[in-house]
TrEMBL record:
Protein name: Thiosulfate ABC transporter substrate-binding protein CysP
Signal peptide: 1-27
Organism encoding this protein: Isoalcanivorax beigongshangi
Subcellular compartments: Periplasm
CDD domains attached to this UniProt entry: PBP2_CysP
Family per record: Belongs to the prokaryotic sulfate-binding protein family.
Pfam (any one): SBP_bac_11
C-alpha cells in the first residue's frame, strides 16, 4: 500500500515535470498557480484542458506551472517573493493575508461568481474497512480510544476547516454554550494522533503509516483515496452536519501587473467555472455550481447540513484572530489537552 501511494505521487510529479519541461519550452506565456497541498493531481488534469482551449481561442501557447503546499505556507511564500500569478486556495483568510499586504485587490472576493469560489466541499471522515470504532458523526471523535489524524490548523486551511467543523458541530449541539463547546473541542484535540503540516502528509500518515482510526479531510480527498484503493481498505463517512469549505481563487494583482499576464490569469480562473472544468472538479469529488453538472452528479454527493463559519461565529478575520492567533483559543485548548 505504501508503495502504491508513493508511486502515485511520484508518477504525478514525473508527469508534471515532463509536461513542464516540454510544454513550457514552447509556450508563449507561462502562469504560476499557487495552490493547496492536495490539489496537485486536480490541477495537473485541469491545466492541459485550459492550455488547449486558450491556444485554440487565442492562437498562442500558454503553460500553467504549479506550486503546492499547506495554503498558509503558500501565502507566506508569495509574501516572501514567490511570483504566483493566481492563487487557488482552500480558505478565505489566506487570500485576505495577501490583500492586507497589497498583493491582491481588497475586493478579490467580488471579482468572480460565487464569492470567487468556483467549487466547494466539506469535512468528511475516512475510516478503516468495517468502521471498527463505529464513527458516524463528530461526537464519535471525542470518545475514549479513538485516534484522529488531520493537518495542523496553524499551517493548513484543511486543518482549520476540521477544527472549525468540530467547533460548529458543538456550537449547534450545545446551543452556543461556550464552556461546553470548549470542553468538546478540547476532548477532540486530545484524541489527535498526529498533526502533519498539510493534507497530503496527513493522508500518508493515515493510509501509509497506518496511524489513527479516522482521517479527517475534505470530502473530495477522502473520496479520492477510497476510489484509489477501492472499497476493500476504507470507508467514507459524511457526517449529517459539517462545515462548508469554500475554495477561493484570486489573481495576484501585483505579480500579473509586473509580468503582463493579467488577461491570461483572468481567463484561467474564469475557466474553472466552465462546464468542462466543473465536470472534472466533480470527477475529483468536489461539489460544484454549474447546474448541468450538479444535476448529472447529484447521486454522487450525500445530502447534509452545511454550517457556515461567518454566519455562526462572525467574520473569518475575527475567527482567525480569536482561534488561530498567538495564544488564541486553539493554543489554549491544546495546552489543556496535553
Amino acid at each position: 500500500m505504501l508503495r502504491r501511494l508513493f508511486v502515485l505521487i511520484l508518477a504525478s510529479a514525473t508527469a508534471l515535470g515532463s509536461m513542464t519541461a516540454t510544454s513550457a519550452a514552447r509556450a508563449d506565456t507561462t502562469l504560476l498557480n499557487s495552490s493547496y497541498d492536495i490539489a496537485r493531481e486536480l490541477f495537473a488534469t485541469l491545466n492541459p484542458l485550459f492550455e488547449a482551449d486558450y491556444q485554440r481561442e487565442h492562437g498562442v501557447a500558454i503553460h500553467i506551472n504549479q506550486s503546492h503546499g499547506g495554503s498558509s505556507r503558500q501565502a507566506q511564500a508569495i509574501i516572501q517573493g514567490l511570483k504566483a500569478d493566481v492563487v487557488t486556495f482552500n480558505q478565505i483568510t489566506d487570500i485576505d493575508v495577501l490583500a492586507q499586504r497589497g498583493l491582491v485587490a481588497a475586493d478579490w472576493a467580488e471579482r468572480f461568481p460565487s464569492a470567487s469560489s468556483p467549487y466547494y466541499s466539506t469535512a468528511a471522515f475516512l475510516v478503516r474497512k468495517g468502521n471498527p470504532k463505529n464513527i458516524r458523526n463528530w461526537d464519535d471523535l471525542v470518545k475514549e480510544g479513538v485516534k484522529v489524524v488531520f493537518p495542523n490548523p496553524k499551517t493548513s486551511g484543511n486543518g482549520r476547516y476540521t477544527y472549525l467543523g468540530a467547533w460548529l458541530f458543538a456550537h449547534q449541539a450545545f446551543d452556543g454554550d461556550e464552556q461546553k463547546i470548549r470542553q468538546f473541542v478540547r476532548s477532540f484535540l486530545s484524541n489527535v494522533a498526529v498533526f502533519d503540516t498539510g493534507g497530503r502528509g496527513a493522508t500518508v500518515t493515515f493510509a501509509e503509516r497506518g496511524i489513527g482510526d479516522v482521517l479527517i479531510s475534505f470530502e473530495s480527498e477522502v473520496s479520492n483515496i477510497r476510489k484509489e484503493y477501492g472499497d476493500g481498505d476504507y470507508e467514507v463517512i459524511v457526517p449529517p452536519v459539517s462545515i462548508l469549505a469554500e475554495f477561493p481563487v484570486a489573481v495576484v494583482d501585483k505579480v500579473v501587473d509586473a509580468r503582463g499576464t493579467r488577461e491570461q490569469a483572468q481567463a484561467y480562473l474564469e475557466f474553472l467555472y466552465s462546464e468542462p472544468a466543473q465536470e472534472i472538479l466533480a470527477q475529483f469529488n468536489y461539489r460544484v455550481h454549474n447546474p448541468a453538472v450538479v444535476a448529472r452528479t447529484r447521486a454522487q454527493f450525500p445530502e447534509l447540513q452545511l454550517l457556515k463559519v461567518d454566519e455562526l461565529l462572525g467574520s473569518w478575520e475575527s475567527v482567525q484572530e480569536a482561534h488561530f492567533g498567538r495564544n488564541g483559543i486553539l493554543d489554549q485548548l491544546q495546552a489543556r489537552s496535553r
